[in-house]
Write a structure and sequence with these properties.
202 residues; alpha+beta; Glutaredoxin; Glutathione S-transferase Yfyf (Class Pi), Chain A, domain 2; four-stranded mixed sheet; 51% helix; globular
Length: 202
Amino acid sequence: MKLYDTTGAPNPRRVRIFLAEKGIDVPREQVNLFKFEQKSDGFRALNPMERTPVLVLEDGTALAESVAICRYFDELKPEPPLFGEGILGRAMVEMWQRRIELYLLFPVLTAFRHGHRAMATLENPQLPDLAEHGRVNALKFMNFLDAELAERRFIAGEAYTIADITALVALEFLKPAQIVMPELSSLKRWFAEVSARPSAAA
């Protein structure tokens, strides 16, 4: 199998961190988005959405979308259980993973794509009002998340999961999105801990 990756892009980074937590090594091929390699006929045959990451299996099946790829690897190697344990545990991780995507990662990336001039070639037209909307919503959710993290060690409970991976990647993009992380003690405590995990270097 082969993973089509883009260094510096958030969604491929989610998969790399997940694989590092699982101890899985997969051959990777870089796709340069700024050179529009994602628009080549060869890549579009794998993912007509023109996005990375894409996992190509040995039989030629192509899986896109970072969470779908992570689910595939979680089934291949259940330990550690990064999608939760038990009926309730898995449901809690699903709930928080979805919340983090919708209310933190997507607003941060919207602010980045519509507010950073380096993205002008990929996001055309850029809409400054949309960037500001993303910043406001991201800050609002960070305050909410800080209160939640005062009650537990990780996003979805006492175990590290894919929800933490998604949140880590989102907060790493605050600077290029021109969002200043507020002085929130529980959020900063959590961020320091997950950033120090070996997988965060993936």
